[in-house]
Amino acid sequence: MTERVAHLIHTIRAYYEGLAIADAAVKREVDHMLSSTEMLDPVAPSGNRVNAGAVKHLPAALDATRKGPGRAVADAIAAAQDDLLWYYGYAPRPGERDLSQDIAFCEILGPTTGSFRSADTRLGFTLIGPRMHYPAHSHPAAELYHLLAGSSTWIKAGEPSRKTPGDFIFHPSGVSHAMETDDASLLSIYSWSGDIISRSTYLA
Ligand SMILES: [Fe+2]
Q: Full-prediction pTM beyond 0.85?
């Protein structure tokens, strides 16, 4: 039922439209996402509906989101949960921990994934379990995160900073970034612009 995912996108739009955004780069990315979601172009559901193991962290992350500014987004995610696919898209790394049990992404709008098609924007969610390190990675796309749940440390170009729910984090094209969670799961909205086709890759 794409209607529930459409409602989720409309909920994110209304949430962002209600925020006062002073940062120019953040505003530019938000405006780009809003322009890409004015008209929604549904795609046929994929046959693959197996969620990554990290989806086990979603209920706690939604509970935490409901305590912050993104309450309506949490409710819309919960309502659409049966229509969402949480996946871990990186290739396995021999000798490294299987991060698919604690990190997952859910794309709701994009060029080939999600419920709605866009040629120039990706929109989705990042979910990371407690006490995790999402290793340094980069991608050609510019990326905007909006943290919904999980105070955490975000490392951009080697510089750590603390973020709390309600914060935006902007990653320009090609900049290295990593995240470390505290004792709670992290849930964030993400959007990509620019080269949204080239994939994200780990840097080490
Ligand atoms: Fe990223």
A: yes
